[in-house]
């Protein structure tokens, strides 16, 4: 009995134009276009081994068996790969994130992108990044973007269960960007992205306005990246993040991912801008503030954020590569 295994790594990505909300008439298709930068400096590494001797799929995350919901998402991806490859062997999956899991730092994005690549490779299937992206998107929409490096766009989906993959628009070295992550809380967030956006779509009177305005915001982000205009990029990215959070704050009951530290960090970003530094904020479905800046201004931005009450620590990241294979046996 042969065991076929592959090991892959992927980075999280941070959306500069946010995805928030799924299409009502699609299967895990986004309701709005999004655009992200893949981040070096944080990574997931995942090994998938299809072993005919196994009676069920196992999933170790960070050295311990993952909960049933997390394992269920992994099995969903493996089942798709098994169907495509015509194999029935169960798999042993081991994964580790070198940054906090499920706390708003996009562990689902790097996690499912690395898993998609490792599973396709271990099953002997084509590992073209577009196929990795489409497979990862079926489990977690933002994971589609981590298949590629640099600046990556994910268009809106289509009705039904059609294919949808992200598209790279510029390589990592295209723009000298730094992202300073101000970590404001350790530990997992109370409401995951999937549940948070489902609640927002269903109950927020602002959701239709968000869907109407997101394409223009995404276009502004894309154009600013293509002409290397970091200031215009920062303005549009901050608008996108605040508009996304406004939809959730207006849900019934309101969903607030922020803590006091989030607001303190946002205020510091405004003070830094007033003092002449390039600094714009974006926030995902969690309390951390991610600050877009230049390599020159990064040390001062990082030092200032580290002093903010409620900021526990900072992580500095730069544009990075897409998902890649480390090993195959
Ligand atoms: N390395 C991994 N391999 C497979 N699944 C993972 C991995 N890391 C995280 N996950 C899955 O992703 C879930 C966390 O995703 P969730 O979207 O709630 O939070 P997040 O990591 O903060 O991401 P985001 O910033 O996109 O919201 C975990 O509960 C687990 O199911
Ligand atoms: C706020 C976000 O990070 C939301 C990410 O949501 P997910 O992709 O984690 O949600 P699911 O598709 O349900 O898995 C914005 C973004 O990354 O675009």
Automatic annotation (TrEMBL):
<keyword id="KW-0443">Lipid metabolism</keyword>
<dbReference type="Pfam" id="PF22700">
    <property type="entry name" value="MVD-like_N"/>
</dbReference>
<keyword id="KW-0547">Nucleotide-binding</keyword>
<dbReference type="InterPro" id="IPR020568">
    <property type="entry name" value="Ribosomal_Su5_D2-typ_SF"/>
</dbReference>
<dbReference type="InterPro" id="IPR014721">
    <property type="entry name" value="Ribsml_uS5_D2-typ_fold_subgr"/>
</dbReference>
<keyword id="KW-0067">ATP-binding</keyword>
<dbReference type="InterPro" id="IPR029765">
    <property type="entry name" value="Mev_diP_decarb"/>
</dbReference>
<keyword id="KW-0444">Lipid biosynthesis</keyword>
<keyword id="KW-0456">Lyase</keyword>
<dbReference type="InterPro" id="IPR053859">
    <property type="entry name" value="MVD-like_N"/>
</dbReference>
<dbReference type="InterPro" id="IPR041431">
    <property type="entry name" value="Mvd1_C"/>
</dbReference>
<feature type="domain" description="Diphosphomevalonate decarboxylase-like N-terminal">
    <location>
        <begin position="10"/>
        <end position="160"/>
    </location>
</feature>
<dbReference type="InterPro" id="IPR005935">
    <property type="entry name" value="Mev_decarb"/>
</dbReference>
<dbReference type="InterPro" id="IPR036554">
    <property type="entry name" value="GHMP_kinase_C_sf"/>
</dbReference>
<dbReference type="Pfam" id="PF18376">
    <property type="entry name" value="MDD_C"/>
</dbReference>
<protein>
    <recommendedName>
        <fullName>diphosphomevalonate decarboxylase</fullName>
        <ecNumber>4.1.1.33</ecNumber>
    </recommendedName>
</protein>
<comment type="similarity">
    <text>Belongs to the diphosphomevalonate decarboxylase family.</text>
</comment>
<dbReference type="GO" id="GO:0004163">
    <property type="term" value="F:diphosphomevalonate decarboxylase activity"/>
</dbReference>
<feature type="domain" description="Mvd1 C-terminal">
    <location>
        <begin position="179"/>
        <end position="308"/>
    </location>
</feature>
């Amino acid at each position: 009995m042969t065991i076929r295994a592959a090991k892959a790594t992927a980075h999280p990505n941070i959306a500069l134009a946010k995805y928030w909300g799924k299409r009502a008439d699609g299967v895990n298709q986004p309701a709005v276009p999004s655009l992200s930068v893949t981040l070096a400096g944080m990574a997931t590494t995942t090994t998938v081994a299809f072993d005919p001797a196994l009676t069920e799929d196992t999933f170790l995350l960070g050295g311990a068996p993952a909960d049933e919901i997390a394992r269920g998402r992994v099995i969903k991806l493996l089942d798709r790969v098994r169907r495509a490859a015509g194999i029935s062997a169960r798999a042993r999956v081991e994964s580790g994130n070198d940054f906090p899991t499920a706390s708003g730092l996009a562990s689902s994005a790097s996690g499912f992108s690395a898993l998609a690549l490792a599973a396709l490779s271990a099953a002997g299937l084509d590992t073209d990044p577009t196929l990795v992206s489409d497979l990862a998107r079926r489990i977690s929409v933002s994971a589609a973007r981590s298949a590629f490096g640099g600046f990556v766009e994910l268009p809106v989906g289509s009705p039904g269960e059609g294919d949808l993959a992200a598209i790279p628009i510029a390589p990592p070295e295209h723009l000298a960007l730094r992202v300073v992550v101000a970590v404001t809380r350790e530990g997992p967030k109370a409401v995951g992205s999937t549940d948070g956006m489902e609640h927002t779509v269903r109950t927020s009177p602002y959701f239709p306005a968000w869907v109407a305005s997101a394409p223009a915001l995404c276009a502004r982000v894309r154009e600013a990246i293509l002409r290397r205009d970091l200031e215009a990029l920062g303005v549009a990215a901050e608008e996108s993040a605040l508009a996304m959070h406004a939809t959730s704050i207006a849900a019934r009951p309101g969903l607030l991912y922020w803590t006091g530290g989030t607001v303190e960090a946002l205020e510091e970003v405004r003070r830094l801008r007033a003092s002449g530094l390039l600094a714009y904020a974006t926030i995902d479905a969690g309390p951390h503030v991610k600050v877009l800046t230049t390599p020159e201004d990064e040390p001062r931005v990082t030092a200032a954020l580290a002093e903010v009450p409620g900021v526990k620590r900072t992580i500095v990241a730069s544009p990075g590569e897409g998902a890649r294979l480390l090993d195959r046996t």
